[in-house]
Amino acid sequence: MSSKIVCFMCNWAFCLEEMEVPKNVNIVRVMCIGRLDPTIVLDVLAKGFDGVLMVGCKPPDCHYVEGNLQAERAVKLLKKLVALAGLEPERIKLEWYTPFEGTSFIQHLKEFSSTINALGESPLKESPELMLNILAATLGLGFFLEGRKN
C-alpha cells in the first residue's frame, strides 16, 4: 500500500509540474507556507495521512518577506511536538523550492515519499494512545498560538 501524503505548497513556488503528482499525494496550494496554521498539519496527521510535506520559497525569495522563516520555526516546533507525542518527526518535512531550479518538484516529492514509505503507515491508525497524544498536542499548540496573538 502506498503512503498517503499531503503537500502544502506556497502559491509562489507552485508550478505546472504538480499535474503529474501521484494519486497518493494531495496538493494543497496556500498563499504562503509561513501563513499555514501549524495545527492544520497535526490535524492532517490525525486524519490518517502518513506524512506532510510543506513546500515554500527559498530564502530570501519569500513574496511575504519572512514567510519562509516563519515556516521554518513552525516546522521545528511541529517536529518536537510529534516526537513528544510518540510519532516520528520525519513524517513532517519542509522543503525549499523554486520552479526555476534544476531539481524538479517531483524529485523532492519522490524523496519524501521514499522516506515515508520506509517509515510505513502512520501508527496513529492503530494506537488510540498516540492519537490522544497528537490531539492533545494540537489543542496545546492552538492555545499557545492564540496566546501569542494577544
Characterise this structure:
With 150 residues, the protein is α/β, with parallel strands linked by helices. It has one domain. It contains four helices and four strands. Strand 3, helix 2 and strand 4 form a beta-alpha-beta unit. Helix 1 runs antiparallel to helix 4 and helix 2 packs antiparallel against helix 4. It is globular.
Short account of what is shown:
The chain has helices at residues 38-46, 67-85, 105-119, 128-149; strands spanning 5-10, 25-30, 51-56, 92-96. The model has no long low-confidence stretch (mean pLDDT 86). 43% of the residues lie in helices and 15% in strands.
How far the N terminus sits from the C terminus, by CA atoms, comes to 45 Å
Using the alpha-carbon principal axes, give the shape.
Answer: globular
Rg, Cα atoms, Å: 15 Å
Tell me the total number of β-strands.
4
Structural class: alpha/beta
Characterize the largest beta sheet: strand count, sense, and whether it forms a barrel. 4 strands, parallel
How many separate structural domains? 1
**How much strand content do the residues show?**
15-25%
Major sheet: arrangement of strands: 2-1-3-4
